[in-house]
Amino acid sequence: MGQPTPARKQADWWRTAVIYQVYVRSFADGDGDGTGDLAGVRAKLPHLAELGVDALWFSPWYLSPMRDGGYDVADYRAIDPAFGTLAEAEKLIAEAREAGIRTIVDIVPNHVSDQHPWFRSALAGGPERDLFHFRPGRGPNGQLPPNNWESQFGGPAWTRVPDGDWYLHLFAPEQPDLDWAHPAVRQEHEDVLRFWFDRGVAGVRIDSAALLVKDPDLPDFVEGRDPHPYVDRDELHDVYRSWRAIADAYDGIFVGEVWLPDTERFARYLRPDELHTAFNFSFLSCPWDASRLRTAIDGTLAEHAPIGAPATWVLCNHDVTRTVTRYGRADTGFDFAAKSFGTPTDLALGTCRARAAALLSLALPGAVYLYQGEELGLPEAEIPQGRIQDPMHFRSGGTDPGRDGCRVPLPWIAEAPYAGFGSREEPWLPQPEGWSAYAADRQAEDPGSMLSLYREALRVRPDFADGPLTWLTAPEGVLAFARAAGPVCVVNFADTPAELPAHSRLLLSSGPLTADGRLPQDTAAWLHL
Ligand code: TEU
Ligand 1 pocket: which of 57, 62, 319 to mutate (most atoms <8 Å of CB)? Predict the structure, then answer.
């Protein structure tokens, strides 16, 4: 076991951090009931310290009926009993910190669970109704929803309650949207931020960060009309300015989930008095192609430079198709709308590319997000129809496989039941045949494994330090860049092996070089010139 490194003291640790996303339900099951929990995470802290990550981002761990995997929160100040207790979360935050790892929690301000006390009172006719978007319907007897908005999960964004009114939910009906024009909604979230900063967390991930504020008239959505009635409204920036003042008092940081194609609008969230960082979904969605990736990288750096915010590099999370699968398909980009069952996949090819992509993203200037299991090279699983739980699947009428395929419980010990995820009960989502071949214990013994590559890459990565990137001239289909601190990253996408630039040392490569020292297709190398 490697010695844990002390947490970087600098206030700007987040500018270059490697942040590991924990989806608690599927990480490790400490009590054997089939669901991952905080005891499981605590037991695996040595794995995370050995991997060398700087921080953990926990997907929601609060009290929740789990109608959307915890993104339906019933109480922000309580841990779901399936995961543990608040005292245990505090212990985990402290233990991680001792191992040099900071904690980021996930706040879901757009909506709450329909079991949240506010919504229950609202349904009972209480004044809490004003905290949500309740409206009479249109058409005879108000039978039609108040407007034409669609849920992000498919179907109308409105559900009717027994008294005849409708309420808005941009996601599942069990996730009613809050009305951010109401001061009590703002007040409550500011208190929740303080609650978690007081418990020692270093940062907060903001769910669906560009969706909170709605046009008060709730007009129909009309394609191409500006401003959008609920995406990226100008009023949002005022909310995030007040949040920033709270974070600053604790040296805390924010990372926003901001899916916006317009780079100028995206960058507004990262102004110095707003969010520190936001996920880079243009990089995640980009196909495995040299010139398109270079364009995505240049675009990202250009949009961040004027505001002085660091970029983030993301290949995967709990919502998208796992990297090794995506890169092994004919369409290597990511688009929610394009997901379907039975897509042909070449996992060997996808894995080779994912290894190269790991070295590419870890060499770029900024922070990197890893999603649990990415370090094990886990593929997307095809979940048998009867076992799927994700509302996206059901609301698509069963055509969309949903997001469970990237949420399968992790394999830890090849020879143990359920590949070491838990013990007594079967995991909440089935692990596919052959899952134990990916087990962490087996990979730790194999220098050619994905886990060994990630460990080595995170060990060497500080050599790249901070500072700008300079593109080097390279043949068609090859990306090569140098970082200010010295090291160079080369990735070959072309089908002929590429000559490496003259170098004094090969730091690391994602796969073997050819016998004459050239870089094969879909392979990356880190060099000192
Ligand atoms: O996702 C918000 C989001 O916009 C997408 O990632 C979403 O899955 C997609 O748009 C569906 O069309 C966040 C969380 O990451 C996701 O897991 C939650 O389901 C969602 O918010 C609701 O809280």
Answer: 319
Which class for 99: exposed (0-12), middle (13-18), buried (19 or more C-beta within 10 A)? middle
> Is ligand 1 within 6 A of the CB of residue 211?
no
Identity at 344, one-letter amino acid code: P
| Active-site residue list | 207, 257
Q: What is the number of alpha carbons within 13 Å of residue 474 lying toward its C-beta?
A: 27
Q: Quick one: pLDDT at residue 9?
A: 53
pLDDT digits (tens, 9 = 90+) for 445-504: 999 999 999 999 999 999 998 899 999 999 999 999 999 999 999 999 999 999 999 999
Q: Which superfamily, per CATH, for 117-168?
A: Oligo-1,6-glucosidase; Domain 2 (3.90.400.10)
SS3 42: helix
- For 468-528, CATH number? 2.60.40.1180
Could you tell me the residue ranges of all domains in the chain? 14-110+183-460, 117-168, 468-528
Name the closest-CA residue to atom 17, ligand 1: 319
Rounded Cα distance, 116 and 240, in Å: 24
Tell me, using a 6 A CB cutoff, whether residue 106 lines ligand 1.
no
pTM: 0.97
DSSP string, 87-110: HHHHHHHHHHHHTT-EEEEEE-TT
Candidate from 105, 107, 208, 336 with most ligand 1 atoms within 8 A of CB, to mutate: 208
For 138-170, write each residue's pLDDT tens digit. 999 999 999 999 999 999 999 999 999 999 999
The Cα 482–Cα 492 span in angstroms is 15
